[in-house]
């Protein structure tokens, strides 16, 4: 009996060791490439440091909260934060509503729904740089969009060169290129709803709209919460489109300057790495607070 217990104990210890050996490469890489840089960036956010300085990070001048205070006094950062907020407010609800409508369409019994699912999803897997270049071609003064508008008597617009149109143009591009991702997630949520609930609602005399309002939407609540959080985080981290369209300068007149684009310019063009790290943690704080607010609004039942 003791021999069996000792053998079982040895087997369990060996099993634990094997388990740790399997996860050890991931743990090491996680510590080196995520936790380590995160700690260093947090320390740098309280220092004045440049890659051009011939000193180590630990020798850099400690400035305390000066970088954070400067951020909120910086007119370019405030403009970038405003642009990013407008971008998020415009893109998030638009792409989620369109994605839900498309998911309902491709979840129905229409012919060729497999083709439409693939067609709607393809822009999501297309490079954002390629999409940006394509939209720059479509939206240029003598581009396809202006030619179509001119046939209806409208004048040609310089979409990406106008301070009032540049950001909305990027927002349209973002919606087109990302709506397929959220459609697929909504589709998965729709297919997880039991048909018996719709049958029971039909027996009770509910029409299509009542079934959608009282059955589909409540049961899609966790899926909608997930899509909302992912979409909000993605819009606050927008970089590629703004960089390509503006050539990296956020123009015209900072009308397409986003927080991440300004962070990139500050850290890798102006070499103010301490200030750039402070901007990064301000952005992280904003995203974290907004996520917690959304979690509170949607309630605990959204947890899987």
TrEMBL record:
GO terms for cellular component: plasma membrane. Pfam families: BPD_transp_1. Signal peptide: none annotated. The keyword Cell cycle does not apply. The chain crosses the membrane at residues 20-44, 86-106, 118-139, 165-188, 219-239, 273-293. Belongs to the binding-protein-dependent transport system permease family. This is ABC-type transporter, integral membrane subunit.
């Amino acid at each position: 009996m003791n021999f069996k217990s000792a053998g079982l104990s040895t087997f369990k210890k060996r099993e634990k060791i094997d388990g740790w050996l399997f996860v050890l490469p991931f743990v090491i890489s996680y510590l080196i490439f995520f936790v380590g840089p995160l700690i260093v960036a947090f320390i740098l956010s309280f220092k004045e440091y440049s890659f051009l300085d011939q000193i180590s990070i630990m020798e850099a001048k400690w400035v305390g909260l000066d970088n954070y205070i400067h951020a909120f006094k910086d007119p370019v950062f405030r403009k970038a934060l405003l642009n990013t907020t407008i971008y998020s407010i415009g893109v998030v609800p638009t792409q989620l509503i369109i994605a839900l409508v498309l998911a309902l369409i491709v979840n129905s019994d229409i012919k060729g729904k497999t083709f439409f699912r693939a067609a709607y999803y393809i822009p999501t897997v297309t490079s954002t740089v390629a999409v940006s270049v394509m939209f720059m071609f479509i939206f240029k003064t003598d581009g396809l969009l202006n030619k179509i508008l001119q046939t209806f008597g409208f004048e040609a617009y310089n979409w990406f060169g106008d301070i009032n149109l540049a950001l909305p143009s990027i927002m349209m591009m973002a919606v087109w290129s990302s709506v397929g991702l959220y459609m697929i997630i909504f589709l998965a949520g729709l297919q997880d709803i039991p048909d018996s609930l719709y049958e029971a609602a039909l027996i009770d005399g509910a029409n299509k709209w009542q079934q959608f309002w009282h059955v589909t939407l409540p049961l899609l609540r966790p899926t909608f919460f997930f899509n909302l959080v992912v979409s909000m985080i993605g819009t606050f981290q927008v970089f590629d489109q703004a960089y390509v369209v503006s050539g990296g300068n956020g123009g015209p007149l900072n009308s397409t300057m986003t927080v991440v684009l300004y962070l990139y310019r500050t850290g890798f063009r102006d070499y103010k790495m301490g200030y750039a790290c402070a901007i990064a943690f301000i952005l992280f704080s904003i995203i974290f607070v907004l996520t917690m607010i959304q979690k509170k609004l949607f309630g605990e039942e959204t947890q899987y």
